[in-house]
Amino acid sequence: KSLYDMACSDEPGVFYACLKKEKGLCTRFFRFMQDKGMCMVVTIKRFSSDDWKPWEQEGITSLLWEYMSK
């Protein structure tokens, strides 16, 4: 499986774990999320544990597809 395929997993924390495997990808992702209004601390907390508030869960999927398409 490619890193991209693994990152698309529904398993908790897998997306963030995959980001950490590629040098520089976390930093780029933090910048992307910061541009969308989420600070680095919250990004790490939410993505490392997949701990989402109900309204965050709604919008995060579209943001992830936008990020992965870049």
Shape: globular
Q: Multimeric state of these chains?
A: single chain
The low-pLDDT segments are none
Q: What fraction, in percent, of the residue positions are helical? A: over 70%
Distance between the termini: 20 Å
Tell me what you see in this structure.
The protein has 70 residues and is an all-alpha fold. The protein has one domain. The protein contains 5 helices and no strands. The longest helix has 15 residues. The protein is globular, with a radius of gyration of 11 Å. The relative contact order is 0.14.
Summarize the structure.
By secondary structure, the chain is mainly alpha-helical. It contains five helices and no strands.
What distinguishing features does this structure have?
70 residues; mainly alpha
SSE diagram, text form:
Elements: H1 3-7, H2 14-21, H3 25-35, H4 40-49, H5 54-68
